[in-house]
Amino acid sequence: MESTRYEQNLAGHDGLAAAMAVASARARAAVPVSTPRERAIRDIATGVAAPVLVGYVIWLLRTAQDRHLHRLCFLSRDAQVFSEIATRLAPRLGIRLPMSYVYSSRRTWSLAASDPYGLEKADWLFNSFMRSNAADVCARLGLDIEKFTGTLAAAGASLSPSARADDPEQNAALRRFVAMPEVAEAMRPRIEQMRQLVRDYAIQEGIASGSTGLVDAGWTGRMIGALHSVLTSADLPAPQTFFWGHEPRASGWTDSEFITAYMYNTVAEPGVRWRVPDVPYIVETFCMADHAIVSGFSRTPESGRIEAVLEKSNAPVSAWGFDVYRAAIYAFCSALSLSHAGDDIRPVLSSLLYGFWITPTEEEAAAWGAYPYDSDPLGRATLPLARAFTEQELKPLLHGDGPFEQGNRAWLQGSLALSGPAGRQAGAILSPQYATLGSPATD
Asked: Please, which domain of life does this record's source organism belong to (predicted)?
């Protein structure tokens, strides 16, 4: 079996990176595929995703051991794959540390930390990959929009699904809506109930402890900040948090006493030298989970235990190729030699990510561009990761006669790779400046 370009990259280095090249090749041989799409899913899984995820988990386990933590809690959904990898690697690294998979979501934690009389300042209500419309805001608050149509109208908010918070007028109107007294009064008991449920769940699962390590992919820290607010307001201890990458913004949260990042941190070590443009989109895709978003928590009457409310399946991701992807990740873990586990391979991981995300082949773009990406807290904005441009859409870039619009395509270079000769030409024009862009606009 011929080496992939990612395996050749890994094999050009010593130690752990070279071992990963061998593991990738063995994993590809161990996972059968029947279509070009499955082949592209498998080959990126073994050659890019697995090294990127496994490198983080090895660092995570060793760091947790060095800090004498008593437990690791992996947050749904992004940390599900980290949990699976850690369970497989920890015994081989000689690390004995209790680990559990715990449920969380932006909707539940952010709501629990909200002030019912200051919802107009709660950016999580309005922001996501696709900015909120009126129905989204009501859904995030758990309000029946039919009962608040008059209040929305009084605030000047449009009920049109296409009127979103990226329009300044609609944004202002939606903030006026959530500031209305009737909204605040409706939300006060909801928020108080969610706050108590989140606190009790944190105690139940061992999250509310300074000797616990909370594991997630990243990014702005807003959700972790919400948890800290909920815990500290009740005089409960907060956990340490580990991110793959951290890029706090004005609407986010950070605290160097509690947050440690592996690959990059825009406000502390290790800095941004290994950050790849738009990297949250890549890593969130690699962190796909097999269940839906947590919509709430409930207390079991018999036992008093707190349980997450969610659908137990994630049908769009399953249909895309989840089983092939995860099988490839697990095969990589089984095949990987850990004799050089202490190596720092972050520069190599950055180059793997850059090669895939910035210069994908058409086959890679077709397979991974079909991934049903969704960064919305309620799963209401699922779109393909990449989508071909029309020649008309590319015209401003090719002829320099107007602004070029990426639209709602999360993967720009994948979309260009699917756009034929004009897309390749546009990619060549855009690549030099794209390579220097900072973090994506979404948070």
From this structure: Bacteria
